TrEMBL record:
Every Fungal lipase-type domain range: 135-271
Protein name per UniProt: Lipase_3 domain-containing protein
Cited SUPFAM superfamilies: alpha/beta-Hydrolases (SSF53474)
Pfam families per record: Lipase_3
GO biological process, one term: lipid metabolic process
Alphabetical keyword list: Signal
């Protein structure tokens, strides 16, 4: 066997071992190397999209996303959570007739500062006894004062969430206000009355962050098992830190974050803060519609939790894309009784 033949026999093996061709993403990162999303190899010398955090290791969702179900069931839930009790039931009557409003909770969730005016947070619960589904759906931000409180909070404080990481203080305090304002009693009573039902949790914008917290809260409180909880949010801001996001995506099989094209809100707060780098993260799974979201529009099921794929590629951001999902203006949809799409 000639030296040249040995070289051509051994060199490919050395090359494959050097870039970790036989290592998956998690194994690669555990060795202190980077995983390349472009060529699916470990420690590639040339790589445009390097993965350095295991939360972003490419993964296929454990549940199936259904565009039709999102439009016909989850969209009306967004609208119902954003309006009053009467119009919430009309949202159900127009789109999901077997779903019945249980209660609406409205609480003061404003910053305790005596200077700022009072702001409120709202959500509703509902029950479908034919399809065996319970619902918690949370309202989005209302008014510039509340929006200002949220934005200022991004630079102030975070709170420990059980034993699984930290979430933004505003989201934590707002959810606790709802929980103590009647949600705990309501959800425990519903669980007692309908012990085998699924729990669907949802919301848009601020409501999306509260939905993420709410789904996590009822599981950590031992009220629901995670396999009985479904979460779908729209335009969700980053809600918690790396540990929270990792726990969430390892706990819930059915958890989808809808992002419309250039929606600005999923990009805030910034993942890399000036003082504490890489602190805030999205959990899986992002469903990205890079279009107007009319019926039949394509979407991408994003392989990374919060990497440079999908919506994070966008540099030009839009408030209009934040308020419009499934070709529907969510600012008025609920107050109109969620008119059925034809």
């Amino acid at each position: 066997m000639t030296p040249r033949f040995l070289f051509f026999l051994i060199f490919p093996i050395i090359l494959l071992q050097s870039v970790g061709a036989f290592l998956n993403c998690e194994q690669c990162l555990s060795q202190g190397k980077h995983y390349c999303a472009d060529d699916k190899l470990c420690n590639s010398a040339i790589c445009l999209n390097k993965i350095t955090k295991s939360i972003n290791c490419p993964r296929t969702p454990n549940a199936t996303y259904d565009d039709v179900e999102a439009r016909t069931k989850w969209l009306p839930l967004f609208g119902a959570g954003a309006t009053n009790a009467k119009m919430a039931q009309k949202c159900f009557d127009n789109n999901w007739p077997t779903m019945k409003l249980s209660t609406r909770i409205l609480v003061n969730c404003s910053d305790p500062s005596p200077i700022l005016p009072t702001t409120e947070c709202a959500m509703i619960t509902a029950v479908d006894t034919s399809q065996r589904v319970l619902v918690m759906t949370f309202r989005a931000t209302v008014g510039n004062t509340q929006l200002g409180e949220e934005i200022l909070n991004y630079f102030v404080a975070k709170k420990k969430f059980f034993d699984i990481g930290y979430i933004f203080e505003f989201f934590y305090d707002a959810y606790v206000s709802l929980w103590r304002g009647g949600l705990e009693t309501e959800i425990r009573n519903l669980k007692y009355k309908y012990p085998d039902y699924e729990l669907w949790v949802t919301g848009h914008s601020l409501g999306a962050a509260l939905a993420s917290v709410g789904a996590s809260w009822v599981v950590k409180s031992g009220i629901f098992r995670p396999e009985r909880v479904k979460l779908m949010t729209a335009g969700q801001p980053r809600t918690g830190d790396y540990d929270y996001a990792m726990w969430h995506q390892n706990t819930f099989a059915y958890s989808f974050r809808l992002v419309h094209a250039h929606d600005v809100v999923p990009h805030v707060p910034f993942q890399e803060e000036i003082v504490d780098k890489d602190k805030m993260w999205h959990h899986r799974t992002e469903i990205w519609y890079n279009n107007d979201m009319t019926p039949g529009s394509p979407y991408k099921i994003c392989p990374e939790a919060d990497g440079l794929y999908c919506a994070n590629q966008q540099l030009d951001l839009s408030w209009n894309d934040h308020t419009h999902y499934f070709n529907t203006d969510l600012d008025v949809y609920g107050d109109q009784g969620c008119p059925k799409k034809t």
